[in-house]
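Known limitations

C-alpha cells in this collection are predictions and should be treated as such. Users comparing against experimental data should check residue numbering before alignment. To illustrate the layout, the record for Diaminopimelate epimerase is reproduced below. The input appears on top and the generated C-alpha cells appear beneath it.
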Amino acid sequence: MADMPADSRSLRFTKGHGTENDFVVLADLDARLDLDADLTRRLADRHAGIGGDGVIRVVPTASADEESVRALADRAPWFMDYRNADGSVAEMCGNGTRVFATFLRREGIETADEFQIATRAGLKGIRFEGDLVATNMGRWRLVDEDRARADGFDSLVHVTGHSDPWSALSVDMSNPHTVVALPEGVDLDALDLLHAPVVRPVPPHGTNVELVRILGPAHIAMRVHERGVGETRSCGTGVCAAALATSFWAGDPEPTRDWTVDVPGGRLRVRALPGHEVELAGPAALVADGEVDLSTL
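Generated C-alpha cells:
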C-alpha cells in the first residue's frame, strides 16, 4: 500500500501514466498528508524529485477540503485530489482518472468493473473494458456558443515561430480548453510548444491549448500545452475537447460517432454519450512503487 510510513520524513508513492501523461500517486487513506503547493512542485520536479505532469492524492471523499466534494461521498468513497506540476489545484485530469482507478483496483480498494470516483469537477464514472479504462468525463459545452455557431471560432491563438494567429474554439470540459485546427502546410510535429501559446481574449482562469491535425474521418492527431505544466505527452480532457471541436467544425454539433485521437504518448478513444456527455477510453499503467526522502527534495 503506497501510503505515508511512520517516519514522516519519507513518503511512499506510486508512479503511473496514461498515454505517457505521468503522475505521482500518493495514497492518503487516513487523510493525514498536507499536500501543499510546495510539496507538489518538489515531488513533480523531473530533475530533483520523482517527476510527473501532476500529483494525485488518493483520499476519502468524506475528508476532502471542499464541501462540494464531500457531498459526493455517499456515491463515490474515493476522491482524486489532483494538482498540476506547478502546485496549482486542478478541477480534474482525464488521463489521471484512469491511473487513479487502476491504482484503486490494484490495491483492492475498489473491486468492481464499474464504479464512480469523486473529483472537483463532480462524479466521474469508471468502466474497465479489457486493456482499456473508460471514464465518463461528464458534460461539455462550447464557451461562446453563439459566436461559435456564427463564426466557427471564438478566440485567436498565437504560437511561437508563426507570425499570424490562428482561429480557435473554446470548449469547457469542467476545465478550460482552446482548440486550434492547424492550417494546411503547418507541421504539427514541428511546432514550438516550449513557450505557452498566447490566447486572445485572455481566458480568466488560463487554458489548455490543443493543436490539431485532421488525419481522416473521425481521426485526428493532437499536441497540447497544459496550463500549469507545459507540453505534455497527452491530456485526457484536451483529447475530448479536440475531438468535440473538430466534430463541430465538421458540421456535427451533436457528435454521434467515436473519434480516434493520436497524441505523442499513444492513442485514445472519444465517444459521445447522451445528455451532451462524453467518454474517454485508453490505457493506464502503474510502473513503479517507491519511497522518497522528503529532506532531499
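For this record: The chain is about 15% helix and 40% strand. The longest strand covers residues 10-18. Please report discrepancies through the issue tracker.
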